[in-house]
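Whiteboard transcription, Tuesday session. T.W. wrote the C-alpha cells on the left side:
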C-alpha cells in the first residue's frame, strides 16, 4: 500500500508522465475524494503534483479569464489561498508547490502567517479595512501612531521623511521623479509663487525640459514616466509614447566577482565613463534612478565601489539620486540593499513596495518643498490595513531574526550549487546576497525549459532577463525548502525535457 501510495499519489520526478492521462484523471479524482486536504496551519512535507502543469482546471480557468480580462496574459498560477501555507501554495488542480517566486517576492512571511491572520481578525483591522481614507485630508490617530512606529524600524539612514503612494512600485517612482523635478526648479529659483501666473495649464511650464536618466536593463514600472524609465523589454514599451529621456549602460559583471576582477573593473569603468558623458551632454537631467540589482532585467548587480562613484557623479552634477528598492527592499539580508554600498552621502530618495505591502518613498529633508504640490494623488493614496500588515511583518522579522536566518539558508544553497552543479555547463554565474539570488543558463530556451520542468515537479520558479533563473523566496525559507530546488536543478540536465531541447 505504502509503495502504491508513493508511486501514484506522490510520484517522483519522471514517474508521473509515464502514467496515461485517463489513469491520471482517475487517480486525481480518487485522491480528491479520499485524501483529506492539507491542513492550513502546517506546511506539507514536500511539494506534490496531481496533474501536469498547468493542470486541466487551470487551463479552463485561463480560457475563461481570457474572455473577461486582459490580465490573463501573465497568469501562471491559480492559487487556493485556503489550502496554502508558509512556503507552499496549492493550485486549483490540487498541485502543491514550494514557492520560490512568492508573488514577486511580496510575501515575506509566506502564505497565511498565523500572526497576520490573528491581526486580520481584530476589530481595529476590520475598521481600517472597511473605511476608505482620503489621506490627503483625513488621518486617524491610529494611522499617525502606526506610521511613527513603523518608519522607526525601516527608515534608511539619514533620510527622514516618508510619503506613501498607491501600493505599487510604479507610483512610488513617479512621485520620486516629480519631487526631483521640483527640487531642480527650486534650486534654480523657478518654483516660486510669483511665477504661478506663468505656469501654462497645458502642462508646459518652465521645467518641461527636465529629464531623468535611467539604465539599460532597468525596470521601474509600466505607467507614463515610470515606463519611460523602464529599459528591460521592448514589448513593455511598444505603442506607448514616452518621454525622450536619456539612458546609460549598467555593468554586466561575471561571477564569482573575485575570480573576474580585471574584467569587472573594466566593465564598471566603461559604464561610469559613459554615464558621465551622458550627464555632461544633457544638463537637463535632474535625477537618475537606479536599482541596486536590476531585478527584472536579469539580476545584474553592481559593486559597492560602482555605486559610490555613481552617487558622487550625481552629487557633482546636481542630479537627485533615486534608489529604486521596490524589489530589493527587505530581500538582501537587510532592510535596504543600498546599505551594502557604504555611501558617504546617502541617497536622496529611496522607493519601496512589494515586501513592504504599502508603497512609497523616503526622502532627505532637503527635498521637502513647502507650498508646492508634492502629493501623489488626490485622495485615496494607500491602504491603512496594509500599513497594519507591514507593522506586524516588521515585528515578526525583527523578533525572529528572519533576515539572518533566511540569508543563512540561501548561503547554504549557494554553496551546494557551487559544489554540485558548477560542473554542469548549463548553469553559471550564481550570484546574490540575502535571499536575492539568481543563476544563468546558456540561453532563453534552456532557461524556459528549466522553469517548466521545475513547475512540473512542484517547484514554482521564474526567470528574468534573457536567460537568468531568479529566486525570490520568503524570509521564512529554510534548507529543507532549498532541497526541493536542488533536486530539480540536479535532475534537469538528465531529464527528457532537456534532451528534447537538443532535438528541435
Ligand atoms: C525594481 C522595480 N521597480 C518598480 C517596479 C514596479 O512596481 P509595480 O509593478 O508594483 O508598479 C518593479 C516591479 O516589478 C520593480 O521590480
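and on the right, the sequence the group agreed on:
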Amino acid at each position: 500500500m505504502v509503495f502504491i501510495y508513493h508511486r501514484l499519489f506522490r510520484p517522483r520526478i519522471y514517474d508521473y508522465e509515464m502514467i496515461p492521462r485517463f489513469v491520471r484523471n482517475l487517480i486525481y479524482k480518487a485522491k480528491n475524494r479520499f485524501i483529506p486536504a492539507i491542513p492550513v496551519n502546517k506546511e506539507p512535507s514536500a511539494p506534490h503534483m496531481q496533474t501536469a502543469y498547468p493542470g486541466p482546471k487551470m487551463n479552463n480557468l485561463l480560457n475563461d479569464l481570457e474572455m473577461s480580462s486582459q490580465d490573463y496574459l501573465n497568469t501562471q498560477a491559480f492559487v487556493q489561498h485556503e489550502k496554502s501555507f508558509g512556503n507552499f501554495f496549492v493550485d486549483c488542480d490540487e498541485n502543491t508547490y514550494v514557492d520560490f517566486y512568492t508573488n514577486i517576492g511580496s510575501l515575506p512571511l509566506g502564505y497565511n502567517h498565523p500572526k497576520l491572520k490573528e491581526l486580520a481578525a481584530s476589530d481595529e483591522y476590520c475598521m481600517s479595512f472597511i473605511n476608505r481614507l482620503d489621506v490627503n485630508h483625513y488621518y486617524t490617530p491610529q494611522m499617525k501612531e502606526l506610521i511613527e512606529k513603523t518608519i522607526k524600524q525601516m527608515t534608511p539612514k539619514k533620510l527622514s521623511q516618508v510619503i506613501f503612494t498607491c501600493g505599487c512600485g510604479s507610483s512610488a517612482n513617479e512621485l520620486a521623479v516629480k519631487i526631483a523635478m521640483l527640487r531642480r526648479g527650486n534650486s534654480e529659483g523657478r518654483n516660486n509663487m510669483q511665477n504661478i501666473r506663468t505656469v501654462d495649464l497645458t502642462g508646459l511650464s518652465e521645467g518641461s525640459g527636465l529629464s531623468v536618466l535611467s539604465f539599460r536593463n532597468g525596470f521601474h514600472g509600466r505607467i507614463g514616466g515610470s515606463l519611460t524609465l523602464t529599459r528591460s523589454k521592448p514589448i513593455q514599451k511598444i505603442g506607448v509614447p514616452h518621454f525622450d529621456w536619456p539612458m546609460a549602460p549598467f555593468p554586466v559583471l561575471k561571477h564569482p566577482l573575485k575570480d573576474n576582477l580585471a574584467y569587472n573593473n573594466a566593465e564598471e569603468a566603461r559604464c561610469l565613463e559613459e554615464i558621465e558623458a551622458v550627464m555632461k551632454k544633457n544638463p537637463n537631467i535632474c535625477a537618475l534612478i537606479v536599482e541596486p540589482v536590476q531585478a527584472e532585467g536579469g539580476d545584474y548587480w553592481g559593486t559597492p565601489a560602482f555605486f559610490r562613484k555613481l552617487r558622487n557623479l550625481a552629487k557633482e552634477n546636481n542630479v537627485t539620486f533615486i534608489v529604486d528598492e521596490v524589489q530589493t527592499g527587505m530581500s538582501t539580508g537587510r532592510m535596504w540593499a543600498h546599505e551594502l554600498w557604504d555611501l558617504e552621502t546617502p541617497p536622496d530618495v529611496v522607493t519601496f513596495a512589494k515586501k513592504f505591502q504599502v508603497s512609497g518613498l523616503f526622502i532627505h529633508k532637503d527635498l521637502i518643498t513647502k507650498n508646492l504640490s508634492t502629493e501623489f494623488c488626490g485622495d485615496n493614496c494607500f491602504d491603512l490595513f496594509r500599513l497594519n500588515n507591514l507593522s506586524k511583518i516588521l515585528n515578526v522579522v525583527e523578533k525572529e531574526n528572519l533576515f539572518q536566518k533566511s540569508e543563512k539558508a540561501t548561503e547554504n544553497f549557494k554553496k551546494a550549487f557551487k559544489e554540485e552543479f558548477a560542473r554542469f555547463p548549463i548553469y553559471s554565474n550564481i550570484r546574490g546576497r540575502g535571499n536575492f539570488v539568481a543563476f544563468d543558463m546558456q540561453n532563453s530556451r534552456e532557461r524556459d525549459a528549466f522553469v517548466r520542468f521545475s513547475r512540473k515537479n512542484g517547484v514554482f520558479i521564474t526567470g528574468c532577463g534573457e536567460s537568468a533563473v531568479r529566486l525570490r523566496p520568503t524570509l521564512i525559507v529554510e534548507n529543507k525548502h532549498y532541497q526541493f530546488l536542488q533536486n530539480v536543478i540536479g535532475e534537469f540536465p538528465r531529464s527528457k525535457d532537456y534532451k528534447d531541447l537538443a532535438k528541435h
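Someone added at the bottom: The two ends are 41 Å apart (CA to CA).
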